[in-house]
Write a structure and sequence with these properties.
Elements (H helix, E strand, L loop, with lengths): L10 H13 L1 E2 L2 E4 L4 E2 L8 E2 L2 E4 L2 E2 L18 H10 L5 H9 L6
Antiparallel strand pairs: 1-6, 2-5, 3-4
Length: 106
């Protein structure tokens, strides 16, 4: 995840840049999974855009900021789906997982 002012980048560019910076993986394609979602429908003006990165390849080392806690772990799809149902504490991840399901061969 990342933030942008969208003055110089569109949401797809931000998603690709953040993926590369935080994981070292580069996607050969991105699918936007609309619509943009509200972080909280009641008290936030912040929206997030969900993208599915396709054919990702490790191309460099991740560049993690000191304020970030990021660990890249490759997880088989079915294990990720189960984790999204039972152990995930980040509310945007189950939403992204659900939206990606129509594009993932299960």
């Amino acid at each position: 995840g990342g933030t942008a002012d969208f003055k110089g980048e569109n949401p797809e560019e931000v998603a690709g840049r953040e993926l590369l910076e935080e994981t070292g993986y580069q996607a050969k394609g991105m699918i936007f999974l609309p619509p943009p979602m509200w972080m909280s429908g009641r008290n936030s003006s912040t929206r997030f855009f969900i993208f599915l990165g396709l054919d990702c390849e490790k191309v460099k080392q991740a560049k993690i900021d000191l304020s970030e806690q990021v660990e890249t772990v490759l997880i088989p799809w079915q294990e990720w789906v189960e984790f999204s149902h039972t152990g995930n504490e980040e509310p945007s991840n189950p939403i992204a997982t659900f939206k990606a399901m129509k594009y993932i061969n299960q």
